[in-house]
């Protein structure tokens, strides 16, 4: 059985348009990581604004692919380790999931394509990235402790690249 702490969480939606993402990618490009992905630069901006994190993120993903993707190792072992990190006993852990490039907006169940797609999972310290309807931007859904969200919402560097809760239409 999963038990959740009695903390007050809140979820906010922020949207990054294509031009802001392109600017972030140019800013984040380094000799080590000449072509950062959208997910890498947005995760870096959301987590800590330190561009070295993007290179560490890429390295971690590549190590995961080698360790669990091609080798045939049991990915359940990874998720057990991940679960122990997320339980909060060793400090705060944050999860960032990308649903980008999933064709959610092309699905048609005979009543038309969706005008807006979002996720409805709310877990503490979770960030979920999805494409915007036009496919050019990225929407981030963040679930954070209220006190952390207040700090996040006043982050001037982040707000220079994002729109907080714009209309979905």
Describe this structure in words.
The chain is α+β, with helices and mostly antiparallel strands. It has one domain (9-164): Chloramphenicol acetyltransferase-like domain (Chloramphenicol Acetyltransferase, 2-Layer Sandwich), CATH 3.30.559. Helices cover 38% and strands 17% of the residues. It has 6 helices and 5 strands, in the order βααααβββααβ. The chain has a 5-stranded mixed beta sheet with strand order 2-3-4-1-5. α2 crosses α3. The longest helix has 19 residues, at 52-70. The termini are far apart. The relative contact order is 0.22. The mean pLDDT is 81.
What are its keywords?
alpha+beta; Chloramphenicol Acetyltransferase; 6 helices; about 40% helix
Tell me, what's the shape? globular
**Main sheet?**
5 strands, mixed
Got a strand count? 5
CATH class: Alpha Beta
Provide the low-confidence segments as ranges: none
Structural class: alpha+beta
H/E topology pattern? EHHHHEEEHHE
Question: What name goes with the CATH superfamily?
Answer: Chloramphenicol acetyltransferase-like domain
Number of domains: 1
Given the structure, what is the number of helices? 6
Can you give the helix content as a percent range? 25-40%
Overall pLDDT level: 81
For the largest beta sheet, what order do the strands appear in spatially? 2-3-4-1-5
Strand % is 15-25%
Tell me the CATH topology: Chloramphenicol Acetyltransferase
End-to-end CA span: 39 Å
Keywords: Acyltransferase, Transferase
InterPro entries: CAT-like_dom_sf (IPR023213)
GO molecular function: acyltransferase activity
Protein name: BAHD acyltransferase
